[in-house]
# Entry
Amino acid sequence: IGRRALTRRLGRLVLGVLTAERHLKQLKLPTMPSECEKTAARAEKENSDYLADQLAFWEAETVDRIRRRRK
# Structure
């Protein structure tokens, strides 16, 4: 992997972690944000897409909870 590709991957990882932490705080899941960074780093090291899958789940849960609160 070249330097630019590595920089892009790292940028996506950081953005994913920050976005995940925001959703997890809104969902009031206090343990998850602290574990998110470690899990993301492990997934990146293993070249898996775990964070993307979890991020989609957390985002959907956040949107659903906001929608239900407005009713």
Notes: The chain has a mean pLDDT of 76.
